[in-house]
TrEMBL record:
This is Transposase.
């Protein structure tokens, strides 16, 4: 058992013929938001109060 469930990779193919990444324009504002969130340090912001249990996700 891996300990807890991890998020899905954004590069993963969807049920559509092309990837979701291909449907979002290169100049779409969501790319700025995505880059901003990727740079956030959640541990420094104290979002690490509880570590996931070895048996699954937190309640």
């Amino acid at each position: 058992m891996s300990g807890y469930i991890e998020g899905v990779d954004r590069e993963q193919a969807t049920m559509f013929p092309d990837r979701l990444e291909a449907r979002i324009g290169k100049d779409h504002p969501v790319r700025v938001i995505d880059a901003f969130v990727d740079e956030l340090d959640f541990a420094a912001a104290e979002f690490n109060r509880r570590a996931p249990d070895q048996t699954g996700r937190d309640g």
